[in-house]
Amino acid sequence: MNNSVFRFEKPKNEPVLSYAPNSPERLELVAELERMSSQQIDIPLIIGGKEIRTGNLGKVVMPHDHGHVLATYHMAGEKEVRMAIEAAVEARKKWENIPWVERASIAIRVAELIAKKYRAVMNAATMLGQSKNAFQAEIDSACETIDFLRFNAYYMSQIYADQPMSPTTDVVNRMEYRPLEGFVFAVTPFNFTAIASNLCMSPVIMGNAVVWKPATTAILSNYYLMQIYKEAGLPDGIINFIPGKGSVIGKEIFAHREFAGVHFTGSTWTFNSFWSEIARNLPNYRSYPKIVGETGGKDFVMVHPSADVQQVAVALVRGAFEFQGQKCSAASRAYIPKSMWYAVKDSMGKMLTDIKVGDVRNFSNFVNAVIDEAAFDSITGYIEKARNTKDAEIVFGGTYDKSKGYFIQPTVILANDPHFVTMEEEIFGPVLTIHVYEDAKFEETLELVDSTSPYALTGSIFSNDRYATEVAFEKLKYAAGNFYINDKPTGAVVGQQPFGGARASGTNDKAGSYLNLIRWTNPRSIKETLNPPTDYRYPFLAE
Ligand SMILES: NC(=O)c1ccc[n+]([C@@H]2O[C@H](COP(=O)([O-])OP(=O)(O)OC[C@H]3O[C@@H](n4cnc5c(N)ncnc54)[C@H](O)[C@@H]3O)[C@@H](O)[C@H]2O)c1
Ligand SMILES: N[C@@H](CCC=O)C(=O)O
């Protein structure tokens, strides 16, 4: 056991590479895309470090070319879920007792491997499997994944250094940061490889062992993560990788006595179903489980008449359509003053005419495919609702085609009714709805922004009038957990804008900050009395 005190310096964010034509990173990525596109791999479950093949198979396809199979994966049944739980419970016994700096070193080594040796692999797998373009993959599967790992090692060192005071000479007080008693269930979404990694690694770094259910539409990149964790020295059984049906896996997990916490990112509906299931099983557990979930959003852009037209138009186009709007933070409803609407529309129209939609391997495509057929059908269903009502009209896009890939043209809906369904419900696709308001009704419109949707994830105000900005800041105090001034509501960076929201958007435990890590510890306060009293009486009783 090493008894030294280690301190990690605050890291810097991983620089985003440009992938400009002929840059070394571009050439390496193109070669990796070709290599991955020309093979079909077999993805097993990984339990206690062992590869398990159940023969119950699913397919990993490219969303932008869904006839192209990249991999087959094996699905867990009840037996494998129980094996994964046992492996995690067993592995945790040694893991929690090694010096924390060893755990931090493994995390930092994972970051280093992704930054250099496996950057192209992680980006190519995310591009092909999740249909992200090179820039969107780079900021996710390279930079954000790396940042989560490096910053969490630093935050962990700060948490552990936080010790209580011992104000008198006869007492020594200290705090021991134990992991949770049991295992943690990580349930991860398709849309960010970084989130998948972080949902597993933040409990792990704090001494916990994890059973990981990845999203079936992100299995390729998630499987490569497992391999990198192993190469970095993560011991067997600390993360147990079990793709499969959520309902089969969830049922076994939530009924288990050793279930100690769930680290989830995904839809509000799924999270609510977990919460009910956990409540139903409460008497079975050893401890109250930690329930951490970041969920949906209906993120707004509120525009004041003093705002700059071009800045607003760019924020709307990038905020709504990057990664096909499949970000929980995507700009999906905007409120524009009447005096600005035609200018904003004109500017957006120029950009939208320029934007190309297609395969990720063609680097000139800004927009790629949505994740799968179910998403395609759900998103286009909303577009059809807009087409078939008097309450709204489609002003850009509105076309789609799933014959080869799940492609939807960036779509802008103008809603006369500020409560039209696409102003209220999360669509999770390339659809932005705009409501135009009378310039004089700025404050009333802020009330509308606050009360229109059950979510409170991200939002922004565009204004060059500081008094107006301040009014929006106050009136929208609880409307967003991440609030932006003169910026799009997406693109939170680890260490800069800790991420998460409340209301129906989750428990707001702020991924990418110490606030998330403290959910994965079970602290023990220790008081040692150096000179214990030998008389039971209070001093005044001796009078
Ligand atoms: N707030 C955030 O930080 C954040 C970030 C990214 C995505 N999201 C949200 O995620 C959603 C999109 O992601 P998604 O489509 O992957 O979400 P989803 O809820 O469909 O799935 C998330 C995960 O839960 C699993 N799952 C579903 N039902 C289950 C069950 N009964 N038992 C166990 N596991 C189950 C899925 O297989 C997947 O791994 C959007 O609503 C988006 O807003 C939120
Ligand atoms: N870090 C992301 C949040 C991920 C949601 O899907 C952003 O702010 O765009």
Automatic annotation (TrEMBL):
The lineage of its organism: Bacteria, Pseudomonadati, Bacteroidota, Bacteroidia, Bacteroidales. One of its GO terms (molecular function) is proline dehydrogenase activity. It is an enzyme of class 1 (oxidoreductase). Its EC number is 1.2.1.88. GO terms for cellular component: cytoplasmic side of plasma membrane. It holds the Pfam family Aldedh. It comes from Acetobacteroides hydrogenigenes. Belongs to the aldehyde dehydrogenase family. The keyword Chloroplast does not apply. Residues 59-514 form the Aldehyde dehydrogenase domain. Pathway: Amino-acid degradation; L-proline degradation into L-glutamate; L-glutamate from L-proline: step 2/2. It comes from the Bacteria. InterPro entries: Ald_DH/histidinol_DH (IPR016161), Ald_DH_C (IPR016163), Ald_DH_CS_CYS (IPR016160), Ald_DH_CS_GLU (IPR029510), Ald_DH_N (IPR016162), Aldehyde_DH_dom (IPR015590), P5CDH/ALDH4A1 (IPR005931), Proline_metab_enzyme (IPR050485). GO terms for biological process: L-proline catabolic process to L-glutamate. This is L-glutamate gamma-semialdehyde dehydrogenase. It catalyses: L-glutamate 5-semialdehyde + NAD(+) + H2O = L-glutamate + NADH + 2 H(+). The keyword Oxidoreductase applies. Keywords: NAD, Oxidoreductase, Proline metabolism. Signal peptide: none annotated.
